[in-house]
Design a protein that fits this description.
By secondary structure, this protein is α+β, with helices and mostly antiparallel strands. The protein contains seven helices and eight strands. The longest helix has 28 residues. Bound molecules: zinc ion.
């Protein structure tokens, strides 16, 4: 309470700059893991201790996405700072931050295999230990929703609240993932695509074997509590 206002503003500025750099760098991971084409796909990160988040600008190529190109929005999705318009998915990100206070990062892609499951409106069944670890069960499908109001955000939040998964496949659209920070949400986006691809291939070869629910619980619990503290790499 005794901190002078100017000092507080300075602290926030440093934190926003750090987030701008982190979120910009994480967009390169979407490219590296081949989760995006053209300018589709976006990462955002909540600025800790504030009602702000940093997100990708709309329509800027991945090669040009440096820290300065990122934009800062409030939790209603209004532009607070930046030279570009925020991503067209900003309202969905903002809705998630408003309703899930534990979420510090959100990612959206149209990655091929995950989106193929979304096109069929089919959840990815939990038939891999890594899926049990990461998602605690199937990767659920959210409702069909049009862009332009809170429909996408509401569909994401309602589906995630009913699941242990940090990922939802919005029907006919694609995956949205969340995490405690932007990096964790990007990791979930990478894992969703990997699991969706492997289970797709398994389906082509025959019937994947389900994992018993108690084993899913045990795997998820161990991974989240033993490995979760060190970044979740088993
Ligand atoms: Zn999309």
């Amino acid at each position: 309470m005794s901190t002078p206002p100017s000092r507080l503003a300075l602290d926030r500025r440093a934190e926003v700059q750090r987030l701008r750099e982190e979120v910009a760098a994480l967009h390169a991971e979407l490219v590296r893991y081949q989760l995006v084409v053209w300018t589709a796909g976006n990462v955002s990160g909540r600025v800790p201790g504030t009602d702000l988040f940093v997100i990708k600008p709309s329509g800027v190529s991945y090669d040009a996405l440096d820290a300065d190109a990122m934009v800062v929005c409030d939790l209603d999705g209004n532009l607070v700072e930046g030279d570009h318009q925020p991503s067209s998915d900003t309202a969905a990100h903002a809705y998630v931050y408003r309703h899930l206070p534990e979420v510090g990062g959100v990612v959206h892609t149209h990655s091929t295999y995950a989106t193929a499951w979304a096109a069929r409106g089919e959840a990815v069944p939990c038939v891999l230990t890594m899926a049990a670890d990461e998602f605690g069960g199937e990767i659920p499908v959210g409702p069909f929703a049009l862009i332009g109001d809170d429909s996408i955000g509401r569909g994401i939040v309602d589906t995630l609240r009913a699941s242990r998964s940090p990922a939802v496949l919005m029907q006919n659209h694609g995956p949205f993932t969340v995490g405690t920070d932007a990096r964790a949400a990007v990791k979930a986006a990478v894992m969703v695509e990997d699991v969706a691809r492997t289970v797709h291939l398994a389906r082509l070869l025959g019937d994947p074997v389900p994992i018993a629910p108690e084993h899913v619980d045990a795997l998820h619990d161990r991974y989240q509590h033993v490995y979760g503290q060190t970044g979740g790499v088993a």
